Amino acid sequence: MELITTSMQFIADSAVDVLPIAVLLFAFQRLVICESLANGKQIVVGFVFVVVGLGLFLVGLEQTLFPLGRLMAQQLTDPAFLYASVGKAVSDLVWQDYYWVYLFAAAIGFSTTLAEPALIAVSMKANTVSGGAIGVWSLRVAVAIGVGVGVSLGCFRIITGLPLHYFIAGGYLVVIVQTAFAPKLIVPLAYDSGGVTTSTVTVPLITALGLGLSEAVPGRSALLDGFGLVAFACLFPIISVLAYGQLAVLRERISVSGRDSGTPEEEKDNAL
């Protein structure tokens, strides 16, 4: 009974959130374009599905994913587990002793990103638009590696308590340098890759992981240290996709060494 009540409350909240979007779209269609909507009943039914789906999705997050993320973080930082792994008391632990946390963070970031619907859609569209030059799986794996590394590094930041802006500023400095040398074809896609990774599958899990980790590590605050993993998950896919483009260029140059080839700029775009 409590679950049903909670579900209805989340669905009602979702309806309130979606209502302004629906009003804006219908008003713009009617008052600016001055035309009635085609398939109006179908659109209304679709909005109902969106509201119900969002509500049930939020229930799932609250009931399953957030508790699961906190549980995993607590188990990986449990004093008994850490003592059995490294043979030290909690007060004597250093950042290297949390290696299981880093491995789990990298694995969960990589696996959830591969399953991200938004990334799958963008990868398929990029493959079509580029005429097959950008592989679907190549792009998905490149983005997933970036998210895995980013989430793992974000967990390192939480454990050590280092300031967030050091990592973000350093990361974007790397992006700026990479942008100057990466193929023009891959640069816009790399920047968009950071956005498509932070969607329905990835964000709930890594947010729960960050909050759980900050609550479990001594001396950390859930409010000050628990958030920020999503920023790492947005930033590092840009770096990994740009690196994917640069490695493709390097591979192309090696394969054509010893024979005539096009200009450097042509090689950059053709390598993908």
Automatic annotation (TrEMBL):
Organism from which the protein derives: uncultured Woeseiaceae bacterium
UniProt xrefs under InterPro entries: UmpAB (IPR011435)
One Pfam family it belongs to: DUF1538
Alphabetic keyword roster: Membrane, Transmembrane, Transmembrane helix
Bilayer-crossing regions: 6-28, 40-61, 99-122, 134-159, 165-182, 194-214, 226-250
Protein name: DUF1538 domain-containing protein
Domain of life: Bacteria
